[in-house]
Amino acid sequence: MNSKPPSLSDTIKLFQYYKNLTERSISQLATTQIHSPIRTGMSSIAVLMKHIAGNQISRWTNFRSEDGEKEWRNRDNEFVDDFKNDDELFAYWEKGWATLFDALHSIQKDELNNIIKIRFEPYTISSAIEKHLTHVSYHTGQIVQIAKFHTGDNWNTLSIPLGKTDEYNRKKYNENHPEK
Fold first, then answer.
1. Strands 121-124 and 115-118, how do they pair?
2. What is the dihedral of CA 120, 10, 21, 116, to 10 degrees?
């Protein structure tokens, strides 16, 4: 069993995985579905994308020297779908991810235990990254579920299709054990 903690590059790959999962989900939808909550009082996919991006921009802009909850952030407004069009939504989405990835790529291994603040509370950079990863994965799961709801029987699975697990496992085994 490998007890070594994941490296920063492994964590960046996980963030890329969740970004890709979200984008593969929304690629199956019409614009109206991206902006439509499945029930009154619930967030649409566009709202969740806006919230993820807004959180990333706030948390990871000047994260070494400023609190992660910026004074200029309007978190409540992140739950209002006020985009004029999808180009604006996706530009904001990409800005959030670029802010995160730029920050993560700037971190040196010896900084991971340095203390930063989020809402005036101290976190090591490492624990702030973990906190953000769980936040992103939580909302990614919501987005996938909403997309599945909107597509119904037309959903294209993002992982192993039901009934194909044994086939998938055999293929992976053979790829990793070519000598057999």
1. antiparallel
2. 10
Domain ranges of the chain: 8-176
Query: What is the spatial distance between Cα 56 and Cα 71, in angstroms, rounded to a whole number?
Result: 14
| CATH 2.10.25.10 matches 8-176 | no
pTM for the model:
0.89
- In sequence order, the 6+-apart residues with CB closer than 8 A to the CB of 106 are none
User: What span, in angstroms and rounded, lies between the C-alpha atoms of 30 and 77?
Assistant: 24
Q: How many residues does the chain have?
A: 180
pLDDT in tens, the chain (180 residues): 455 566 899 999 999 999 999 999 999 999 999 999 999 999 999 999 999 999 999 999 999 999 999 999 999 999 999 999 999 999 999 999 999 999 999 999 999 999 999 999 999 999 999 999 999 999 999 999 999 999 999 999 988 778 878 887 888 888 888 776
